[in-house]
Amino acid sequence: MLVVALVVGIAVVGSLVSSLFQTLSARPPAVDTRIVTPDESKAAKAAQQTPAGSAAAEAASWLAAQPTTYWLTPEIDPVDQVWDRVAHLSAEARDQDATVSIAVYGLPDRDCGNHSAGGLDPDAYREWTARIGDALRNASDVRKIVVLEPDSIALAPSCGSLEERARHLRTAVENLRGVNTWIYLDGGHSAWHPVNEMADLLRSTGLVDEVRGVALNVSNYQDTANEFAYAHRLSDLLGGTHAIIDTSRNGAGPAGPDWCNPGGRLVGAASGAFGDGVVDTTLWIKPPGESDGECNGGPVAGTWWPDAAVELTRESR
Fold it and tell me: Which structural domains are found in the chain, ordered by start?
């Protein structure tokens, strides 16, 4: 009888999760979330440089046409160039009647020395984020989504640097805030920290009430329904904070503990596909086709990887 009850219970939970996903997927986004398709994406550059007729060219061209977040890094967009980059993205947003989505990724001790190690020293970070903020405010007529420093909070306990990181994030929020600008802190994902623990980490930054919400599942593969449920639990614990969910590579679901270039993945629901009263929208934050790092055959983190682009889009293009 116990086994039967357990099986029935599992079936009921599975049915509820499936029902939740179907309900959510039928709803429009909570906000107008047509996202810019950036012509300076690595997919767009690969589409121009890859010989036509190959699967790699087809995948790059298809991905180049998808609304996707642009990652600002000091390596590619240093302080003397980042204003122009944001201005160009804002001009694209006007032309497309869309929302700019950028990830700001230059935190001191970025990625705690892992695959995406780097970042700026504190003074340079302050100057760099101030330039980004100036450019964002200069485009006050454009809607902006800012994903602030992916992994910075969820990874902090492993690095022993939460207090220091929170200080840098507070500087960044102060520099970036402005009209029509929604800032989202790193919220990890549903398979990383238990929700109570993640809520405590976010509270400790002192920024929950200073930003729109949290970004979940960035560069990861968790099921969208699980991330919606996690977002709602975080919102309940944090006084109604909102969320966005990265669906760029979760079309085949999670890959277990292997987060670095796992095989067999697929792109997920498009940017702006759906949302609800807590989740503002789905969003392609990690650009599909860019490597997580030198693991599972991948090149350096952030590098365009044609094999991954082909695999991720095999059922879409």
Answer: 32-312 (3.20.20.40)
The string of pLDDT tens digits covering residues 182-225 is: 999 999 999 999 999 999 999 999 999 999 999 999 999 999 99
Which strands sit side by side in the sheet containing 181-186, from one edge to the other?
70-72, 100-104, 144-148, 181-186, 213-216, 242-246, 279-283
CB atoms within 10 A of CB 69: 28
Residues belonging to the active site: 111, 151, 292
In terms of C-beta density within 10 A (0-12 exposed, 13-18 middle, 19 or more buried), how is residue 163 classed? exposed
Residues listed for the chain: 317
pLDDT attached to residue 85? 98
Give per-residue pLDDT as tens, 251-267: 999 988 889 999 999 99
Cα 68 to the chain's mean position, in Å?
9
Burial of 306 (0-12, 13-18, 19+ CB in 10 A): middle
